Amino acid sequence: MSYFDLEQLNFRYPNQKTGGIEDFSMSIDKGEIVALLGKSGSGKSTILRLISGLETPKSGTLRVNQKIIFDHNINLAPQERGIGMIFQDYSLFPHLTVLQNVMFGVSRKGKKEREKKAMDILAMVQLQEHARKYPQECSGGQQQRIAIARALAAEPNILLLDEPFSNLDEELKKSVREEIKDLLKKCNITAILVTHDKGDVGAVADRVLHIA
Ligand SMILES: Nc1ncnc2c1ncn2[C@@H]1O[C@H](COP(=O)(O)OP(=O)(O)OP(=O)(O)O)[C@@H](O)[C@H]1O
Ligand SMILES: [Mg+2]
Fold first, then answer.
1. In sequence order, what are the beta bridge partners of 83?
2. CA 121 to centroid of ligand 1, rounded, Å
3. Sign of CA dihedral 177, 64, 45, 34
């Protein structure tokens, strides 16, 4: 058994006639970064949605650190799974400041304490000077780091990143890839990175899994 096991997942959207996820299995070690590579429409985002609990598999088992988070009797809610997700479009809250976006991820009580923790994480991604801005006043690379900070604030066991570099230009992509890899390694976070860019794989992932 590994740190994170997906066993024989099956899923199809209600209106989906062909394809879908069929007997998908994979195992990931603690702290490992795995890239999931596959062409558009192959089901990469769907697999992340199944893992995070946004969609429910027809069958299969999901296990984190020997604890079942999904099987034929158990189905933990997304917020109970200890899994963080960074969406393809970042999904930041436009009406909240950078700091408030990150504070949203912090679960501990007390405004002062949440604010301190959020500021510490913003420092880690080098955004403390932008804390009072709104996301739309930040660059693409900064928005991407805000999304990462918000996800890390919840102290996830596993982080899922869906095409996190697709909105960045080539220059920025290079530096952000390195920053993310350093950050994930420093925090010993287990991660799945979905991409169709082979450059991401070489720069960030420990291992690559191709899906058809
Ligand atoms: N909400 C939905 N309802 C019905 N079908 C969907 C839905 N979301 C995705 N699909 C279909 O499921 C398949 C897999 O979609 P998915 O978004 O997982 O692909 P992907 O690998 O992430 O693609 P991309 O690289 O373009 O992001 C596609 O055929 C898609 O059309
Ligand atoms: Mg996708």
1. 158
2. 32
3. positive
pLDDT single digits (tens) 185-204: 988 999 999 998 889 999 99
* Residue listed under structure tokens 């006043």: 137
Beta strand 33-37 with 190-195: parallel, antiparallel or unpaired? parallel
Contact 206, 173 (CB under 8 A): no
The terminus-to-terminus CA distance of the chain in angstroms comes to 25
Q: Which of 180, 190, 184, 152 is nearest to 30 (CA)?
A: 190
Q: Which residues contact 178 (CB under 8 A, 6 or more apart)?
A: 203
Q: What is the pLDDT of residues 89-142, one digit of tens each?
A: 889 999 999 999 999 989 877 999 999 999 999 998 889 999 999 999 998 889
- Say how many Å lie between the CA of residue 108 and the centre of ligand 2: 32
How is residue 84 written in tokens?
A: 């963080």
| Residue 15 Cβ < 6 Å to ligand 1 | yes
Asked if residue 18 has its Cβ within 6 Å of ligand 1, the reply is: no
Ligand 1 contact via 12 beta carbon (within 6 Å): no
- The CA distance from 54 to 22, in Å, is 18
Shortest CA distance to 34 belongs to which of 50, 20, 48?
A: 48
Closest Cα to atom 6 of ligand 1: 13
82, containing H or E segment:
none
CB atoms within 10 A of CB 127: 22
Residue identified by tokens 């007997």 is 23
